[in-house]
Design brief:
The chain is α/β, with parallel strands linked by helices. It has helices at about 40-45, 65-70, 80-90, 105-115, 135-140, 155-165, 170-185, 210-225, 255-265; strands spanning about 30-35, 50-55, 75-80, 100, 125-130, 145-150, 190, 195-205, 230-235, 270-275. The radius of gyration is 18 Å and the shape is globular.
């Protein structure tokens, strides 16, 4: 942490002395660890996914529904040893997997924790991120993560720069997703249809950007065999955080926009989960209350 280059921001700060662009210092900060039922069915199952919500974020989207932890950095600092205990506790509660949410800026410490518990952890590890990753950072997780679940938020540079301050988002995210696939390979499921390994590419529809969504779907279809990965199309966008600063996204997705994207996904034969348009709700945002951390 003398010079942090974990994420594509490459801010190079000494996190032992100051916080990085992500808002993180030298300690792991976590806002909640609990069984979570609102992930994809093959991740949540009947018992729930063992989600660990990390504080801070290297992307800082203006519409983030989790802004309390991503931008305001709410949470409690914990040690690597405490993170190990949290993972094992979630497993003992019946979690189908350990789901690391927004973990990029703590990968070095997370990899350390996963090494320490790998002989005790009997459930898959899910890496749930914005997709904005450095491949060198992902290499720290090779053999430790079973399922990658990245976002692929934008295709156009102008959108990623405007809403997330990251002009290079698609370049970095697309390269990272290809790298993730090289690590985990084709999707595999158990007898209960729970995912054991593989790649789920998430994409959330944004108001006024359905043509960008179509380009993302086309890229996925061009780069992966449709039966080797899953996609998750999310329609849960609800104006939040700083959305009101941009009038074009200060609304929900229309039926026209939703139908256009769903039709393209079906025409390409992409397999996965597709939320109903009625899913646009703040109910998907958990209460960040330090549950499971203290």
């Amino acid at each position: 942490m003398d010079k942090c280059y974990l994420c594509p921001r490459m801010c190079g700060v000494n996190r032992k002395q100051q916080i990085g662009f992500c808002g993180a210092g030298d300690s792991i900060r976590v806002a909640r660890a609990s069984l979570h039922m609102w992930e994809e069915p093959c991740i949540s199952g009947k018992n729930g996914s063992g989600t660990i919500f990390f504080s801070g974020c290297s992307l800082k989207c203006c519409f983030c529904q989790n802004y309390k932890i991503s931008a305001q950095n709410f949470g409690l600092d914990i040690s690597v040893e405490r993170l190990c205990d949290i993972m094992l506790d979630l497993q003992s509660q019946g979690a189908h997997n350990i789901n690391l949410v927004t973990p990029t800026h703590y990968v070095d410490k997370i990899a350390d924790a996963l090494e320490k518990v790998k002989n005790k952890l009997k459930i898959p590890v899910v890496y749930n991120s914005s997709g904005y990753e450095n491949t060198q950072t992902l290499d720290m997780l090779d053999g430790l993560v079973n399922i990658y679940m990245p976002d692929l938020k934008y295709f156009a540079e102008e959108l990623s720069k405007k809403y997330s301050g990251a002009k290079d988002y698609f370049k970095k995210a697309s390269n990272a997703i290809l790298h993730m696939y090289k690590q985990v390979g084709s999707v595999e499921f158990d007898e209960e249809k729970m995912m054991k390994k593989g790649l789920i590419i998430r994409h959330m529809l944004l108001p006024g950007a359905y043509k960008d969504s179509l380009k993302i779907l086309d890229w996925i279809a061009d780069n992966f065999d449709k039966d080797k990965i899953m996609i998750s199309l999310m329609c849960q966008y609800t104006p939040s955080y700083k959305s009101s600063e941009f009038s074009e996204i200060n609304r929900r997705v229309t039926s026209f926009e939703y139908n256009k994207v769903i039709e393209r996904a079906l025409s390409l034969g992409l397999d996965g989960c597709m939320q109903e348009r009625s899913s646009a709700s703040k109910s998907y945002v958990p209460e960040f209350d330090l549950r499971g951390i203290n």
